[in-house]
Fold this protein.
Amino acid sequence: MEWWTILSDRHINGSRLTLDDVVARLDATANGIGRRSNEAAEPAEIEEQNRNEWVKGDKPLKAAAVLVPLVVREDGLNVLLTKRTDHLKNHAGQISFPGGRVDDTDRDALHTALRETEEELGLPAKHINIIGELDEYIVGTGYLVNPIIGVIEPPFELNPEENEVAEVFEASLDYLIAPENMGTYARDYQGATRHHFAITWEEHFIWGATAGMLRNLSQRLLSE
């Protein structure tokens, strides 16, 4: 069984965040870095259950990193997202950030995020200006993800890896981080009901880890 609660009308806050706003608010809330988040929705006891699903288990978390790409456009900032191909082993067909597992040859999480972005989208690191990172994020498939935030300024060209990436699109940052636009999504999985955050952008349904990381970004950028 699956069900979701999502606002159907698009809503964007009246005041748009500029790149300077984003950098300033990330700097102001940087002391939150290093906490572990998860993709569960309320109530709090469910969130705690999912958070500790892997931490308390016998399986160690695998290190991973993603890039949260912000694209500077004339009408505001957009978030660059990908739709994974349907044949992938994990998270097939889902909306995601470019990224993946940390390889033994990677220097750090930043190296992983930039390497994976170039491999998936054909976008070299020279086009990306790193401005911060979000909280570490535990994904239900057993990964501890480090989300790195980078800024991309046009012009740039993408050459998506067709075996991994089915689609690349941009969505308004203001829309994605507006609390009014975030709902909840639940599904029965392996005998238990799993709760996730979710956002609908045009024809795209963003849920799970990607929506959870966007929620963390919203908390960082909209906190007083």
Q: What stands out?
A: Residues 141 and 176 are 24 Å apart (CA to CA). Residues 1-13, 39-52 have pLDDT under 50 and may be disordered. The chain has five helices and 13 strands. The chain has one domain: 2-222.
